[in-house]
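Fig. S4 source data, part A: sequence.
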Amino acid sequence: MEGLISGGFSIALMGLIQSTIIARNLSAKTGQLIDNNKEIASQGLSNAVGSFLSCFPACGSFNRSAANLEAGALTPLSGIVSALALALLVFRANPLIARLPMPVMAEILFIVAPGLINLKDIRRLLSIRGEARIIFVITLITTL
């Protein structure tokens, strides 16, 4: 039981951190106000209910969010359309997707990812003296 609790807590915490960072990043790009309390509550409710239905833990996705932003989507309806399109692909196009080489799928991520990198913020963080720069560098190295 101890292993399940610590593992579950770790997964929930990482998902929460990822979703919060995504929301803050996209909020800065779009100018929309994000209520972190609603984000945390909705993610917690989703994962609590999903645990009784044998679901995987859920959290925000940089890839889908960035793709929606680049397509011009700004409302929650884009998430519903994305989910329906994904369900259609999973159930109808599964044999085709299974034949796609992994490098093709990886390239899609490489196309979307540069839009999430803000060089101006990176330069600003590197110019700051003290612990903010140290935290940024450690996080960057750990992530890479």
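Fig. S4 source data, part B ends here. The radius of gyration is 18 Å.
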